[in-house]
Task: structure prediction
Amino acid sequence: MSSPHLQTYNERARKHTNKAASALLRVMEEKQSNLSVSVDVTKSKDFFDIIEAVGPHVCLIKTHIDILEDFDATVIDRLRELSEKHKFLIFEDRKFADIGSTVALQYSKGIYKIADWAHITNAHAVPGPSIITGLASVGIPKERGLILLAEMSSKGALTTGSYTEDAVRMARARRDFVIGFIAQHRMEGIGASDTDNIAEEDFLVLAPGVGLDATGDTMGQQYRTPEQVVFESGCDVIIVGRGIYGKGENVDTREVLKQAQRYQAAGWEAYKKRVQCI
Ligand code: S5P
Result:
């Protein structure tokens, strides 16, 4: 059997046992989009203007819900409506990083109640497997999926070598809930032992740090192109923020739409080249 990164998103959707992962793969194939837009803006008007513009072109909207200055519960209602209208999943980029009992509370309670509306969230591996146990206690009953941060895109990131390997091992031990990684390369088989059945694993790799026009910002972010990320490095989803909406203030929705279509096309072409459909 060929490795997951050489199979179509559709084939993978059919086989995946986690509901959030298989829904995401299905939407990717249906909409011909492996684009996730990271909507990192502070006003809900800009937030929804961007989502309305990019909605038809994305498989996944990534949020940092805690940076919205005018957040209230209606934001979640509207986000969910748009998710159904435009058929995208929601990924709250919360980057949990605490002990199991604390992250279970952060995931389910407080103002944001992330587990109620985010199909996918993510966590750092640094606390060890107990962070997955804590998040799974909330997320599994709601059929959610978890992404572990195995490699970061920023200059000087400590997520390298044995740290990355250990993150993949942690994921492998909880394939019911951990559906993939934030990483810069495909991860299957990394850190595996002879007794691991790696033929059965299918981890989605979501890659941030994607840009067609810039190679970085002034704060250590590093960008690669969709071709490098999806075709050369075998990642599945490209995460793009400022490449699509610039500063994200008083957004020009026509320009946002144009950029979303540009990234969608570049990501899809790189995927087709990878699975050799063209
Ligand atoms: O390693 C990472 C992990 C993440 S989730 N590097 C990242 O940049 N991210 C997130 O991706 C980051 O928090 C931001 O929301 C987005 C990148 O935004 P951009 O504007 O640089 O494309």
Summary: Residues 38, 40, 64, 93, 152-154, 182, 208-209, 221, 239-243 surround 6-sulfanyluridine-5'-phosphate (CB under 6 Å). The radius of gyration is 17 Å.
